Queue: 3 jobs
Job 1
Amino acid sequence: MRTVDVERTIPAPLPDVFDWLTDTTNYQRVPFVRRVTLVRPGHTTGHGEGAVRLIVTPMIRLTEEIVEYRPQEIIRYRLLKSIPPLRHQDGFISFRQVSRGTRVRWFSTFEIAAPMLAGLCTAVTLPIIRAGFIMVMRTAERELRGA
C-alpha cells in the first residue's frame, strides 16, 4: 500500500471550504475531471454519510461511499469500485480553522490491484492521484477567493 497525504491552507472560512470540497459536483470544474455523479444521496444530507458518488477522469474511474461525515471536521470515504482496480485502505479529507483560513488535509492509502507489477503500477499512479488532490484544492481555493 502507498499513501498520498496532501495539506493546503485555503484562505477562506472553514464552512465554505468544507461545503465546497464535500460537494463533489464542484469537482466537474476541476481540470481533467470529466464527470461527477451523485449516485445515491446520503442519509441526512446529499453528500453526507451513506452517499455514493462516481468520479470519472481520463485516467481513473472511482465509485466511493461516504462512511463518516462530521460537518466542518472530516469526511471519510471507502472505495466501492474503480478502473483500474484499486485496493483502498483509507481515505479522508479533514478540515481545521487556522489564522489564514482553513487547513485541509487529504489522505488516501491504496494500491493497484494487479496480478503482476502491482508495486510498479502503484508507484506510477501515486503522483497522478497526488496531482488530482492538488488540482481539486487549487480549484476550490480559486473559486472561494472569487466568492
Note: The mean pLDDT is 93.
Job 2
Amino acid sequence: MKFYDRENELGRLQEIRISSLENAQFTVVTGRRRVGKTQLLLRASENQSTLYFFVSRKAEPFLCEDFQQEISEKLQIPMLGNVQKFSQLFKFLMQLSATRSFNLIIDEFQEFLTVNSSVFSDMQRDWDTLKAQSKINLLVCGSVHSMMHKIFEDYSAPLYGRATVFLRIKPFKVSVLKEILKENNPKYTAEDLLALYAFSGGVAKYVQLFVDNKALTLKKMLDLMIKEDSSFIADGKSMLIEEFGRDYAIYFTILSAIARGENTRGKMEAAVGKEVGGYITRMENDYGLLSKSRPLFTKSETKNVRYVIDDNFLTFWFRFIYKYSHIVEIGQFGELRKIIERDYATFSGKVLEKYFREKLIEQGGITKIGGYWNKTGENEIDLIALNETDKTAQIVEIKRNEKHIRYNLLKEKAVGMLAKTGELNGYEIQYKGFSLADM
C-alpha cells in the first residue's frame, strides 16, 4: 500500500528538523501499535542523514554492536570498538552532533526498561550537559502506552520535561479511508466503507493488510480476518497483554463487557464480580484505551456515565474474538463467522454512530458534540452537534437503513430533552437523519 495522508505530521516533523539545525530537538512520538509511527518517521527523514536504532530485547552489548554498525554505515565513521553500554554511544553522538546535524530515531524506546533501565538517567545527564552545543534531531517512539507515559510524564522519571515536542499519531480520518477505498476499490459500497472503518478504525497496519490482500469488501474482509492463520485473531491479546501484565484477565473482562454494551460501572462490576474503579481509571489515564461518555448538557460530576473503547479494532476484537475465544481455540472459524454475520447489523449500527460523529468533527463548524440519554437510558438521542458561535444545533438520528429514521419521534425526544435541560434557547435547530446512504 502506498503512503497516505499525514501531511500535517510530516510538516511538523520538517519544522522540527529545521529547528535542530540550530538547537537540539527531542521529539517523543506516541500512538497505539500498528498506527504507522515508524513509517511516518522514516518517511519524514528520507534523503536526510539519519540513524535508525531499533531497541529489541537482547543484551545491551549486542544492541550496541547493532547500533555501531548503523553509525558506521550511515555516518561513515569507523566502529568505536568494545562498547558495552548505550550511554557511551549516546554521549558520543551528542558530542558528534556539535559539528554535524543528523536525525537519530530510536524505535520501541520503552524496551530500554527491559534492557537496562539506567539508560534513561544516563540520557538525562548527557542531554542536559551537551544539548546546548548539539544539533541532533532526536526522535523516539514507543507503542506501549503505559511505559511511554511512565518514562516521559511521570514527574519523578529522569526524562520528565526533557522532550521538546510530543506528537501523538492518530488513526486515519474517515475521509482518508474513503480516499483509500476509492483508489483501491472504485466500486465500493457504503457497507464496505463501514466495514473498513469498523474493523480497522483507521489503523494503518490493518488498512494495509486489507489493501495488500485486495480485501476491500465486507465479505472479503471477513474472509481475511476469520481464519486460522489470521493475524487479526491474535492481535488484540498480543497488543494489550504487555500493557496489563498479570492482571490482564480482569482488564479483558471489563473491555469485553463494554464491547457488548455493558458499559456502565455497575454492569462492569457485575461482569467482573469486584470493584473496577481503579482498573477503569488506569485504562482511561495510563493506557489511553477508554473514554467517559456523558449526556450532553449534564454536569461533569454526573454519575450517568457510559464508557467507550476508543479503538474500533479492539471493540470488534473484544465483541467477537475474545468473547468467543472458546470457538477460536477449537478452530471452528466457520461457526464464529456465522455469529459475526448474525450480530453484525447491531454491532455496525453503533459503529455508524461513531463514524458520523468523526465525520462531523472533520467537516468542522461545530464547537460541541455528543449524545443524550436520561438516567434510565431512555429518551436517547444519537447525536447532537452545536455551533455555539452562530447558535445552531443539529439533532440527529442514525440508522443503517434510512427507512427506519423516524423524525417525529426524534423531535419528541428533543422536546423532552430541552424541557429537562433548559438548553438551546435561541438556537436554530435542524433535525437530521443519517444512514448508510449518507456516508
Note: The longest helix spans residues 333-363.
Job 3
Amino acid sequence: MANDNTLVYSTDSGRITQPEQEAERPEGDGIARIQRQTSGRKGKGVCLISGIDMDDAGLTQLAAELKKKCGCGGSLKEGIIEIQGDKRDLLKTLLEAKGMKVKLAGG
C-alpha cells in the first residue's frame, strides 16, 4: 500500500478540499502548425492544427469551417483543432487563404 499523506478530513475544520487547477491551453504564437498523427487512434490518421492565436469561440468557428470545406469530421480539444484524415495540403491552402502563416510539421 502506498504511503499517501494527503489530508482528507480533519476534526478541526471538517472536510478538506483540494484546490482545483484549471487546465490551461497553450497560447498560440500566430503560426499554424499542421501535423499528421495516428498514434492511439487505431491506425486512423488525423491532422492536428495548433499555434493559432484565437479565443475558443473563434477556434470553434474555424474548426467548423475547415471541417465543412474538407468534407470530413473533426473536433476541437484544448485549443488544438483535429481534422479527420490526411488533408494537410488542403488545410494549408485554406489557412493561407485566411492570411495565416502555416508550417507543415513532421509527424
Note: The CA atoms of residues 7 and 16 lie 7 Å apart.
